[in-house]
Amino acid sequence: MLLQAAKCVGAGLATIGLAGAGVGIGTVFGALVIGISRNPSLKDEMFRMAILGFALTEAIALFALMIAFLVLFAV
Q: Which domains are seen in the chain, by residue range?
């Protein structure tokens, strides 16, 4: 009983990284909108960099989710 409760608490703590990833994705695309509004001629270059930033940020979120599942369901 205590072990299961500890696993649930640990999995919940591991998902804190998902909130950080959401903030990071919002920051990336917010900076993209501001950058395009300041210099529209660099739209394609900035969009490629924003997609790279999105992918790296989303990877961190997936790692956090993977750790949460490992804590919860590992033997």
A: 1-74 (1.20.20.10)
